[in-house]
Design goal:
Blueprint lengths: L10 H5 L46 H4 L8 E2 L3 E3 H4 L12 H4 L1 H6 L4 E3 L1 E2 L11 H24 L4 H8 L3 H29 L2 H13 L1 H6 L3 H15 L1 H13 L6 H28 L3 H18 L7 H16 L4 E2 L1 H4 L4 H18 L1 H31 L4 H6 L2 H27 L11 H6 L2 H11 L13 H5 L1 H22 L4 H30 L1 H15 L1 H15 L6
Parallel strand pairs: 1-4, 3-5
Antiparallel strand pairs: 2-3
Helix pairs in contact: 6-12, 6-13, 6-14, 7-8, 8-11, 8-12, 8-25, 9-11, 9-14, 12-13, 13-18, 13-20, 13-24, 17-25, 18-24, 18-25, 18-26, 18-27, 20-24, 22-24, 22-26, 25-26
Organism: Trametes coccinea (strain BRFM310) (Pycnoporus coccineus)
Main location: membrane
Subcellular location: Membrane
Length: 576
């Protein structure tokens, strides 16, 4: 091929006058000719009909470009032509992407080469050895556990903080609530940044800031310092919540990530349960300030593990490859969809800060499913405040022994870990029975199983506690054992609800999950502020029963969506 001077418009400029232009090759560079188009093919472990969680939803203008399997398919040439790769966003209203609807731009797409993985590509995280992928999965889950652990560890010695700063329990409860609020805000910022710059930088930098803000927590001279520092801990410590699920999706295809996703689903619930167990004994023996020093040490160890996670985000890796290939070949048509159709800053802000609230207001499936899952999250934190009422005030146990009572919740979470992969296999069987195309409602099987265990656990907890069953002998087993059905139902229900939201809104996954995080954080932050007064005023039996009755009232939700979900989705512009 002869070298020719290059003076024509770059690829990005040809499709968007406001976009940042792709680097133009210097005159005299060789330009590759565009060969025949290639679709690429999906590996057997990936089902292209299910949402690709590695797709950069928040930073790619899918209204103009539509979707592509660029980040999942493999090809012999290492690229696929854009005219064959782009397709409409999966929703009830079929709408051709703007770039395909414009004949002139559609013609130009024939020259655009979207970079893909090669077959058995060593840079593709999915081809890494299973042992290494399980190590990354373990670190991702551990990072979520460590941050969730930090929210509840202070519950191990509320009394010490109340006594030192002479404040009420509600004020001290803000140290939990504000950190949860930070968790809700952080991912809205970190998620789009990780799409633009890759996941690896945000595994380390925000985590280090989070570790530093544990220092003013431990050295606080007043309650204001403690509360502000806890909020900042939540804000900067939210990285694993924004990154871990995506990183697991990066290295495991959707037909093989059953147990990996189960670990991730259990981590946000297992972590807070461990907090009071550890915090109770620390506060009882060496004081509440050491709770934060120990948490800081634990976070430092986890940060070291997080620093070993390589870049796993396919769009970031392929973008780097596209830039290298353009420099080597001089061909400006080598690019990625995200680079070609990147959203403006204003559009990204709307996607992350506005659209989630629009969807909460207009999508009943998203609103009710998020509300249900969030209620369970709030109930978990309700346990942290009701257990001390039952076991410290009712049985006279110290903080350490009271913390040990949470082990029952861990048992329930452990049982759920063995059930959730089987739910995933059940879903795949249902998909195969329907010709390879399962309905999102097939995800609700787990919710229809797990929803019964929440009220069962709450009724057991309330009516086996004092004064219904007075302390003595082995009577503590009753309220303690309530954690087993609760822990099991909590994880199974959340796992299924999360999967249903993803499958029901495949074109708006990022916004749907952001909406769920907002609702979850709101309920999780509010619960600690009134739960103690609720149990004191209503009594253990009726306070727990109120939550049980609320849980019972929500049980019809998965069953109604299982029957009518398809019809409801047909009325939505965003649902599948």
């Amino acid at each position: 091929m002869a070298a020719t001077p290059h003076s024509e418009t770059t690829t990005v400029e040809a499709f968007d006058d406001t976009a940042t232009a792709v680097e133009k090759p210097a005159p005299g560079h060789v330009r590759l000719s565009v060969g025949p188009g290639e679709h690429g093919h999906n590996p057997p472990s990936h089902d292209p009909d299910r949402p690709d969680l590695s797709f950069p939803f928040q930073t790619t203008d899918i209204d103009r470009a539509g979707f592509t399997d660029e980040y999942r398919v493999t090809s012999k040439t290492g690229y696929i032509t854009a005219d064959l790769a782009l397709r409409p966003v999966p929703s009830h209203y079929h709408k051709l992407p703007a770039v395909l609807a414009d004949p002139e731009k559609a013609l130009r797409l024939k020259q655009v080469k979207l970079v893909t993985w090669y077959e058995n590509d060593p840079e593709d995280p999915r081809t890494w050895k299973n042992a290494y992928k399980w190590y990354i999965t373990f670190v991702c889950a551990l990072s979520v556990v460590s941050i969730a652990f930090a929210t509840a560890i202070i519950a191990g010695d509320f009394g010490g903080v109340m006594e030192e700063f002479q404040v009420s329990e509600v004020v001290v409860a803000l140290s939990v609530s504000l950190m949860i609020i930070g968790f809700g805000i952080g991912p809205l910022i970190l998620a789009p940044l990780s799409e633009l710059h890759g996941r690896r930088p945000f595994w380390v930098a925000p985590f280090l800031v989070y570790i530093i803000f544990n220092i003013p927590c431990a050295l606080a001279k007043n309650i204001g310092t403690l509360l502000v520092s806890r909020f900042l801990c939540g804000l900067f410590g939210s990285g694993p919540f924004a990154l871990a699920g995506g990183a697991i999706a990066d290295i495991w295809d959707n037909n093989e990530r059953g147990f990996a996703v189960a670990l991730f689903a259990a981590a946000p619930y297992g972590g807070p349960v461990l907090g009071p167990i550890v915090g109770g004994f620390i506060g009882e023996t060496i004081g509440w300030r050491w709770i934060f020093w120990v948490n800081m040490i634990f976070a430092g160890v986890v940060a070291c593990f997080c620093a070993t996670i390589p870049e796993t985000y396919a769009p970031a890796i392929l973008l780097k490859r596209a830039k290298r290939l353009r420099a080597e070949t001089g061909d400006p048509n080598i690019t990625t969809e995200q680079e070609l159709f990147r959203k403006s800053l204003k559009e990204i802000v709307v996607e992350t800060a506005v659209r989630p609230f629009q969807m909460i207001a207009t999508e009943p499936i998203l609103t009710l499913m998020s509300l249900y899952a969030s209620l369970i999250y709030g109930l978990l934190y309700a346990f942290f405040f009701s257990f001390p009422i039952v076991f410290s005030e009712g049985y006279g146990y110290n903080d350490g022994i009271t913390g040990l009572m949470f082990c029952s919740v861990l048992i329930g979470v452990g049982v759920a870990l063995f059930v959730t992969p089987r739910l995933e296999k059940n879903y795949i069987r249902r998909a195969q029975a329907k010709g390879g195309h399962a309905d999102p409602e097939d995800r609700l099987v787990g919710m229809m199983i797990g929803c019964w265990f929440i009220p069962i656990g709450m009724f057991i907890f309330g009516w086996t506690s004092p004064p219904a069953v007075m302390p003595g002998g082995g009577n503590w087993v009753g309220p303690c054992s309530a954690g087993i059905p609760f822990g099991f139902g909590m994880v199974v229900l959340y796992f299924s609800a999360n999967a249903y939201i993803i499958d029901a809104f495949p074109g708006y996954v990022a916004s749907a999950l952001a909406a769920k995080i907002v609702i979850r954080s709101g309920l999780g932050a509010a619960t600690p502020l009134f739960i103690t007064a609720m149990f004191h005023n209503l009594g253990n039996g009726w306070a727990a029963s109120v939550w049980a009755f609320i849980s019972l009232a929500l049980i019809p939700i998965p069953f109604c969506f299982y029957k009518y979900g398809k019809w409801i989705r047909s009325k939505s512009r965003r649902a599948a």
